[in-house]
Design brief:
With about 100 residues, the chain is an all-beta fold. The protein is built from no helices and 11 strands. Bound molecules: FE2/S2 (inorganic) cluster. This is Nitrite reductase (NADH) small subunit.
Length: about 100
């Protein structure tokens, strides 16, 4: 059943242009801040399970630190290579908490 869980404090969220790794309920999450908007993606790249939360942002994409596959921060769809994607999780801020919805 889908539910919202805290991933970090607002103060601990990545700054604009940065990413970070978190883990909630055993799920690895890449939290990304693209121009002030937070996005949450599956942390594990479908190529060879590189940690997206250790990668970086270019444009609206999160790039994997291992071989630079690029995933749209909003949709999880890969800009490169075509046909790949990672899961994304809805994000909301409630008070001082950053929450994501997982099922
Ligand atoms: S493991 Fe992510 S691009 Fe290779």
């Amino acid at each position: 059943m889908a539910h919202w869980v805290k991933v970090c404090d607002v103060a601990g969220a990545p700054a604009s242009g940065a990413v970070m790794e978190c883990e909630v309920e055993g799920i690895g999450v890449c939290l990304a801040n693209v121009g002030g908007k937070l996005s949450a993606l599956d942390n594990w790249c479908p190529h060879r399970r590189g940690p997206l939360g250790q990668g970086w942002i270019e444009g609206n994409a999160v790039l994997c630190p291992w071989h630079s596959w690029a995933f749209d921060a909003d949709t999880g769809v890969a800009e490169y290579p075509e046909g790949e994607r990672v899961a994304v999780f809805p994000v909301q801020v409630q008070g001082d908490d950053v929450l994501i919805e997982i099922s």
